[in-house]
Design goal:
Layout lengths: L2 H4 L12 H9 L2 E5 L3 H11 L5 E5 L22 H9 L1 H7 L16 E4 L9 E6 L14 E10 L6 E4 L3 E2 L6 H7 L14 H20 L9 E6 L5 E5 L16
Parallel strand pairs: 1-2, 1-4, 2-3, 4-5
Antiparallel strand pairs: 5-6, 5-7, 6-8, 8-9
Bound molecules: zinc ion.
């Protein structure tokens, strides 16, 4: 899938397959989250439990009153969400809340991930997977090539979100790219606040999303989002997939895979 997923763990002292190899592989991953509303912040918390090497957080919006219900501190009101989230999720904060290093967050036994804030629109080449949550605008076209793969989250519905759509994972090769979506007539995700979502639905959206990232990073199976849209009806709980492949007329099919 990407550099992190294709890298093994040869010759690393004290590591043996498969559990340690998985942890090592996750530790190589650089992830980015665009949008740090309720969904993005919850995704960030859960992603840290996977033990990634680096997590880049992007959201220039100020922490508002509605954000305080989701863990932002009253003293952070007015501060950029990205800076506030980095402070909130940094290791000392997590360890203060969860005594017993390495036990508080499931799967956390390796080095602490590096948490970085970045302004919206910042280029972050080298990121393996960039998640664009509904609280973030869809990236400009010149930003689309910066990440190894782009995973869009979209919420649809006239009022409260009724349908969650994850993916498809957009890559340069193989698999569909952003231009393929246009050629297929798939609407691009639109900016949408998740502040009014019920907490259990926020956690559902975040958990399904982070599970997809975990499958991508571990590389044991093809993740559903690699060739499909993962669709969850938030009204009924029914889950389904919609295949989306590279469009036969898209120029991405002529791109050679990276050496
Ligand atoms: Zn394409």
């Amino acid at each position: 899938m990407n550099g992190a997923a294709s890298t093994g763990s040869p010759g690393v002292p004290g590591m043996s397959a498969p559990q340690d190899a998985t942890r090592f592989r996750r530790g190589l991953a650089a992830l980015r989250i665009d949008g740090l509303g309720p969904v993005g912040l919850t995704v960030a918390r859960l992603l840290l439990g996977l033990g990634p090497g680096t997590v880049v957080l992007c959201d220039d919006a100020p922490v508002g009153t509605g954000d305080l219900d989701w863990g932002y501190l009253r003293t952070q009101r007015g501060r950029e969400r990205s800076a506030a989230a980095v402070a909130l999720l940094s290791a000392p904060e997590r360890q203060r809340d969860r005594p017993g290093r390495g036990r508080g967050l499931p799967g956390r036994q390796a080095a602490e991930p590096v948490l970085i804030e970045a302004p919206e629109g910042a280029r972050t080449p080298g990121v393996d997977v960039r998640l664009v949550t509904p609280d973030a605008p869809w990236p400009e076209s010149h930003e689309l090539d910066d990440a190894g793969a782009l995973l869009p989250l979209a919420l649809h519905g006239p009022g409260l979100p009724e349908v969650l759509v994850i993916g498809p994972l957009l890559t340069r090769h193989p698999g569909p790219c952003a231009d393929c979506l246009d050629l297929h007539g798939v609407p691009r995700p639109v900016l949408r606040s998740t502040l009014e979502m019920p907490p259990h639905l926020v956690h559902l959206v975040a958990a399904v999303t982070v599970h997809q990232v975990q499958v991508l990073l571990d590389g044991r199976y093809a993740a559903a989002c690699e060739q499909f849209q993962v669709i969850v009806d938030l009204g009924t709980g029914a889950a389904s997939t919609m295949p989306i492949s590279s469009h036969p007329e898209c120029a991405c099919l002529t791109h050679l895979p990276a050496a």
